[in-house]
Q: What sequence folds into this?
């Protein structure tokens, strides 16, 4: 596979802080299919300090940072208000990266706050994916640019045709390198309109999960942003040293990737998390079209007696991906994995919570594209409080879902079976 990312040459680039390094090869014992043996041997599982050390080894020396504060949003409206408030409070710098940044009412609200920040002297950098934001009018970008906002589009059709398949799927907001946001939410009405407080959900609304972070991990998110910004020919960001970590607070590790860097490490970290778990593995994922290896890892966890549950979309905006995931249902159900399909809204969240302690929140789907072609950003969190919050959110979502049973799945029609097989053939392209 060709290397799609140019490494910035400036010696003062924040790329110097990136982990893992481009082109790094994991030691064989830490690869996705072998790391499980190491993780299962950790005496106290996910809560053992040895598990955090294992994550650091997998990530190439990136430390699990302590002293962070996390706030979890399962309500798109509340997440949007929190992001807008952070932008309004910015003093020096705003870094915003999104796969989809629309010019609808939500996009205009963000643009208004970004322009206001720029006018009061804050440096504002906006990076949007050219394909994900394809429907956004060029005039929208020009208007922000004319008001001082630095705007870049990632891998435009022209002149970046060669790199067209490689997309920036990250969702990052960093304010003053002290407050950060990441997760699954894009900048669009369908994400901001979902509210847990209202019984009636707006048609097309997305149920997503986002996190607000204060602490050293927010600085790490700025480093990740700098990689995509440099790729899109953005003007270099000033270098700042990593902040001091506080002893008290949440421990977390940024797990980011792009073609040629980090995809294997992400897969290994997730495999290690599943293997080190002792009780539960609860996964929410919007676009479930996994490879055989991922299905095997989940199946073996269920066979060991763990409570493995998948919360997947009951309705979708990409039917082909849903059918491709259906092709694995029979094997997963047979091995004891429980599958639920969410019905209240379009499910867009990408989270994992194990033993109500170790969590993953981010942008990666369980599909081929997220682990081969896309630039992604996830955060692994090791914390009782955050773990319990995400576990309770998962349990709440189950109330709006239906469980798929083996007996029911055996009775599905022939056309459904044919569609599943056909979609499975296209899994590497999804």
A:
């Amino acid at each position: 596979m060709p290397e799609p990312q140019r490494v910035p040459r400036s010696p003062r680039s924040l790329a110097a802080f990136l982990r893992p390094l481009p082109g790094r090869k994991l030691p064989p014992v830490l690869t996705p299919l072998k790391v499980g043996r190491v993780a299962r041997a950790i005496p106290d599982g996910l809560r053992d300090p040895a598990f955090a050390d294992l994550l650091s080894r997998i990530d190439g020396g990136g430390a699990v940072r302590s002293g962070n504060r996390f706030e979890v949003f399962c309500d798109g409206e509340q997440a949007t208000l929190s992001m807008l408030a952070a932008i309004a409070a910015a003093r020096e710098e705003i870094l915003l990266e999104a796969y989809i940044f629309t010019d609808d009412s939500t996009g205009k609200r963000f643009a208004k706050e970004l322009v206001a920040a720029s006018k009061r002297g804050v440096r504002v950098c906006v990076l949007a994916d050219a394909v994900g934001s394809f429907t956004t009018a060029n005039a929208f970008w020009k208007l922000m640019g004319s008001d001082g906002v630095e705007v870049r589009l990632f891998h435009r059709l022209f002149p970046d045709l060669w790199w067209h398949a490689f997309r920036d799927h990250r969702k990052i907001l960093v304010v003053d390198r002290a407050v950060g946001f990441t997760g699954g939410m894009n900048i669009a009405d369908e994400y901001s309109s979902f509210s847990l407080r209202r019984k009636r959900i707006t048609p097309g609304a997305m149920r997503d999960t986002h996190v607000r972070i204060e602490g050293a991990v927010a600085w790490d998110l700025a480093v990740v942003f700098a990689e995509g910004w440099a790729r899109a020919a953005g003007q270099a960001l000033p270098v700042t040293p990593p902040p001091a970590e506080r002893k008290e607070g949440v421990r977390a590790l940024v797990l980011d990737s792009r073609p040629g860097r980090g995809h294997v490490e992400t897969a290994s970290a997730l495999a290690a998390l599943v293997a080190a778990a002792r009780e539960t593995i609860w996964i929410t994922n919007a676009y479930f079209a996994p490879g055989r290896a991922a299905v095997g890892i989940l199946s073996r966890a269920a066979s060991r007696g763990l409570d493995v549950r998948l919360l997947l979309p009951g309705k979708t905006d990409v039917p082909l991906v849903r059918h491709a995931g259906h092709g694995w249902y029979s094997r997963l159900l047979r091995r004891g994995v429980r599958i639920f399909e969410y019905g209240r809204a379009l499910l867009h969240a990408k989270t994992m919570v194990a033993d109500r302690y170790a969590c993953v929140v981010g942008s990666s789907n369980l599909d081929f594209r997220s682990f081969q072609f896309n630039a992604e950003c996830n955060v692994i969190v090791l914390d009782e409080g955050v773990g319990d919050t995400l576990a309770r959110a998962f349990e709440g979502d189950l109330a709006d879902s239906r469980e798929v049973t083996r007996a029911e799945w055996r009775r599905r029609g022939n056309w459904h079976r044919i569609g599943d097989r056909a979609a499975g053939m296209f899994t590497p392209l999804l």
